[in-house]
């Protein structure tokens, strides 16, 4: 069995013996008692930490970022292991422990005498924690495909769970706990769920509170931010002996590459990877910009292209097996190529510049009187012009085109959440603090292992310490000196040429997306007959998919949102087809 990284366990809360079949389904060696659990990390075994003492077993998977500080608070030696610290933090703080344990991790705490099991996650999700309870038995795993092997687990997809996994973030914010299987729930980031004879209790830690107002100058703020970013990348370099960095030559990735290169110690490796257009295609890509950065840093640049066998409309089985829900990854074929390149260079982590817009490269405008006037005029224009109308429920509430029958029976809570206040155009108060920007929680919801056995995708910009530091800065620092993304531009001043530092926009991450979309559409249409025979039309609007795929011949460049919806609908159909064929079809 190809185990996904994460926590696995079978627990009997009544003291009875665990079922051998349950253990076998999850790939666990059966124990004679009522508790068996393990942590698995396919690429970084050192990330598995375990402590057994006094009837308490704690397994922590991942890393604590400030362990010495936590140890002092808990009155423990500063060299205490991560699992010991986690157990002590849970004993001291209970369900609030995740708020005190900085880092990215998942954790299990079993207290045998109390017959109590606690599962915890860091505020930024590292590995999924899926759990289910049947009477006195609790099972947990990071993979829906492992849990569906349980002999008592129904294999039929739950319609409400499917709808929730396909919904846009606006309809399931802040986190979707539903899964494809009825009775299986996902533990949210920054949460603790406790199981005992009295029942099940879930508690999420509160939203982060903005730091006190920063009193220093812009230069002071930049110095503190750079020092912290250096610390973050220094920690990751030290843990793994090197890093791969996705480099586009844009502000986000260039900032990370510059800082990582500055912090790289003797013997540590740094590999720069960039997405390149197919050879001799003539398509524009980011290679010239990435090469400028690589040359300035004195590092080689590796060009990454998808395999010729990769298909936009047909994710690999390996990709589907790593997912707990049907994939919504539009560039899965390109990311697989990045994983191959990272693995070839021997790296366990692939640094991604996602999320820079919440700190160093924030491009939110300042809500000045002039801005408010322009926004009011845009609203008036949108009201008059029906083509610019606001999104509608349920048409715009999902990443795919759902079947009409499924749309007619949607759970009401999705619409209720969708209709809660939502600002599509956030702006900074020029007299206020930076704070935590809308949508930042989406960064926390994504696990870092997206391909079994491949390097983790790590966005340093979602580090909670960095977000907390920026939250106290004056909002006007985002546009200091009249320049947007001011912190990143200032940090790169004198380190990279202005052709990089002053870039206003970038090119497509996947240079050949549209040519592939049109070229592969006829092949994708041939899959529709298999989809219909498998009953996938109960879940997805296959007539709509057929029409949109056919239209790509005459209209090869639809609006990007439409293109993504076509692709994702086909991808989800492939996932459902494999699901119907059974778990073995995915392996």
TrEMBL record:
GO CC terms, sorted: cytosol
Reaction catalyzed: L-aspartate + L-glutamine + ATP + H2O = L-asparagine + L-glutamate + AMP + diphosphate + H(+)
GO molecular function, one term: asparagine synthase (glutamine-hydrolyzing) activity
Xref: SUPFAM superfamilies: Adenine nucleotide alpha hydrolases-like, N-terminal nucleophile aminohydrolases (Ntn hydrolases)
Domain Asparagine synthetase: 226-310, 459-554
Coiled coil: none
EC number(s) stated in the UniProt entry for this protein: 6.3.5.4
InterPro entries attached to this UniProt entry: Asn_synthase, ASN_synthetase/amidase, Ntn_hydrolases_N, Rossmann-like_a/b/a_fold
Biological pathway: Amino-acid biosynthesis; L-asparagine biosynthesis; L-asparagine from L-aspartate (L-Gln route): step 1/1
BP GO terms, sorted: asparagine biosynthetic process
Pfam families assigned to the protein according to its UniProt record, in alphabetical order: Asn_synthase
Entry protein name: asparagine synthase (glutamine-hydrolyzing)
């Amino acid at each position: 069995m190809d185990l996904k990284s994460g926590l696995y366990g079978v627990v009997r809360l009544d003291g009875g013996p665990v079922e051998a079949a349950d253990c076998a389904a999850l790939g666990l060696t059966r124990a004679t008692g009522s508790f068996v659990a393990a942590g698995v990390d396919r690429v970084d075994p050192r990330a598995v930490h375990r402590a057994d003492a006094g009837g308490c077993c704690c397994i922590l998977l991942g890393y604590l970022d400030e362990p010495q500080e936590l140890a002092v608070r808990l009155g423990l030696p500063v060299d205490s292991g991560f699992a010991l610290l986690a157990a002590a933090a849970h004993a001291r703080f209970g369900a609030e422990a995740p708020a005190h344990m900085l880092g990215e991790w998942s954790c299990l705490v079993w207290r045998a005498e109390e017959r109590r099991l606690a599962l915890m996650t860091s505020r930024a999700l590292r590995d999924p924690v899926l759990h289910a309870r049947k009477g006195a038995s609790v099972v947990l795993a990071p993979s829906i495909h492992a849990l569906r092997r349980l002999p008592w687990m129904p294999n039929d997809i739950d319609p409400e769970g499917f709808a929730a996994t396909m919904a846009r973030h606006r309809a399931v914010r802040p986190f979707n706990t539903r899964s494809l299987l009825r009775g299986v729930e996902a533990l949210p980031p920054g949460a603790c769920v406790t199981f005992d004879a009295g029942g099940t209790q879930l508690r999420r830690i509160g939203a982060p509170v903005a730091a006190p107002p920063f009193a220093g100058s812009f230069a002071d703020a930049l110095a503190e931010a750079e020092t912290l970013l250096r610390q973050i990348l220094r920690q990751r370099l030290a843990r793994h002996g090197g890093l791969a960095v996705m480099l586009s030559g844009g502000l986000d990735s260039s900032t990370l590459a510059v800082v990582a290169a500055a912090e790289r110690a003797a013997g540590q490796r740094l590999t720069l990877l960039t997405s390149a257009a197919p050879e001799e295609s003539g398509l524009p890509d980011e290679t010239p910009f990435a090469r400028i950065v690589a040359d300035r840093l004195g590092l080689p640049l590796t060009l990454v292209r998808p395999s010729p066998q990769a298909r936009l409309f047909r994710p690999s089985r390996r990709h589907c097996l790593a997912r707990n829900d049907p994939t919504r990854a539009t560039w899965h074929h390109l990311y697989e190529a990045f994983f191959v390149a990272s693995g070839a260079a021997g790296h366990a982590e692939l640094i991604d510049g996602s999320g820079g817009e919440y700190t160093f490269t924030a491009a939110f405008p300042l809500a000045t009187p002039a801005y408010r006037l322009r926004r009011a005029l845009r609203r008036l224009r949108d009201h008059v012009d029906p083509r610019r109308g606001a999104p509608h429920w349920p048409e715009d509430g999902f990443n795919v085109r759902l079947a009409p029958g499924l749309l007619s029976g949607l759970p009401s809570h999705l619409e209720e959440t969708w209709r809660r206040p939502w600002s599509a155009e956030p702006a900074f108060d020029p007299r206020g603090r930076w704070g935590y920007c809308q949508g930042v929680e989406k960064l926390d919801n994504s696990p870092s292992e997206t391909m079994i056995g491949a390097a983790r995708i790590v966005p340093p910009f979602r580090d909670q310490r960095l977000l907390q530091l920026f939250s106290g800065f004056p909002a006007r620092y985002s546009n200091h000196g009249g320049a947007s993304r001011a912190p990143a531009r200032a940090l790169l001043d004198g380190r990279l040429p202005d052709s990089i530092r002053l870039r206003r926009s970038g090119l497509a991450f996947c240079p050949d997306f549209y040519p592939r979309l049109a070229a592969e559409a006829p092949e994708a249409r041939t899959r529709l007959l298999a989809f219909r025979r498998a009953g996938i039309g109960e879940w997805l609007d296959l007539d709509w998919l057929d029409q949109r795929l056919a239209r790509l011949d005459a209209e090869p460049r639809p609006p990007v949102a439409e293109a993504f919806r076509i692709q994702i609908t086909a991808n989800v159909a492939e996932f459902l087809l494999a699901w119907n064929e059974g778990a073995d079809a995915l392996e």
